[in-house]
């Protein structure tokens, strides 16, 4: 990796932390440049404005979230369906435990969306795909015969999505709850009668 690529990556990493900790309003490009160890004029080589940097990080987060909630249906069988659903939540809990800045910065984008229509529409799109992916997973479970085809299947999927999302919000506040057990209970409430899981 060349010096320009390394500097670019360092700008992203430092901006990510500073935006998460201080917010967009209280973080300037000059502050980021100082932390990176470059001059303020030098940072403009990489980003023409703070807004451009904010947008770049958002795009990266957007892609990461979509990747995290993507499920390869070919991997799901009647034998492993429950285990894979548990893994989805456990993976998210572990990732958020390792990255204390994720929910902080994501909440900055939620605040930004309240006054910026383009961020609002992208967040609505992301939320919709997030909910849809859970609905599709449970509908696949119906096809596999793991779940009963009830009129409430969509509501069950949305409940799982809300639990999944809110675990991250609670982790952000520092509440020391047993998040794995909470996710397990949510999955068990949807898939009743299955064998006990790890």
From TrEMBL:
Organism: Lysinibacillus boronitolerans JCM 21713 = 10a = NBRC 103108
Phylogenetic classification of the source organism: Bacteria, Bacillati, Bacillota, Bacilli, Bacillales
Keyword list, A-Z: DNA-binding
DNA-binding region: 28-47
Protein's UniProt name: TetR family transcriptional regulator
Keyword DNA-binding: yes
Name of one Pfam family that matches: TetR_N
Annotated HTH tetR-type domain residues: 5-65
InterPro entries per the UniProt record, alphabetical: DNA-bd_HTH_TetR-type_CS (IPR023772), Homeodomain-like_sf (IPR009057), HTH-type_TetR-like_transc_reg (IPR050109), HTH_TetR (IPR001647), Tet_transcr_reg_TetR-rel_C_sf (IPR036271)
């Amino acid at each position: 990796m060349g010096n320009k690529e390394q500097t670019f990556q360092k700008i992203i990493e430092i901006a990510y932390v500073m935006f998460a900790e201080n917010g967009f309003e209280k973080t300037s490009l000059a502050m980021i440049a100082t932390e990176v160890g470059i001059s303020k004029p030098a940072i403009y080589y990489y980003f023409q404005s703070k807004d451009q940097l904010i947008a770049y990080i958002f795009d990266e987060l957007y892609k990461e979230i979509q990747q995290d909630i993507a499920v390869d249906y070919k991997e799901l069988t009647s034998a492993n369906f429950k285990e894979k659903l548990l893994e989805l939540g456990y993976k998210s809990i572990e990732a958020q435990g390792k990255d204390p800045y994720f929910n902080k910065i994501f909440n900055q984008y939620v605040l930004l969306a309240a006054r910026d229509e383009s961020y609002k529409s992208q967040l609505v799109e992301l939320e919709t795909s997030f909910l849809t992916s859970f609905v599709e997973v449970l509908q696949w479970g119906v096809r596999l015969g793991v779940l009963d085809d009830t009129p409430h299947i969509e509501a069950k999927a949305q409940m799982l999505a809300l639990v999944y999302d809110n675990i991250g919000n609670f982790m952000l506040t520092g509440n020391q709850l047993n998040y794995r057990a909470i996710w397990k209970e949510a999955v068990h409430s949807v898939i009743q009668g299955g064998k006990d899981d790890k």
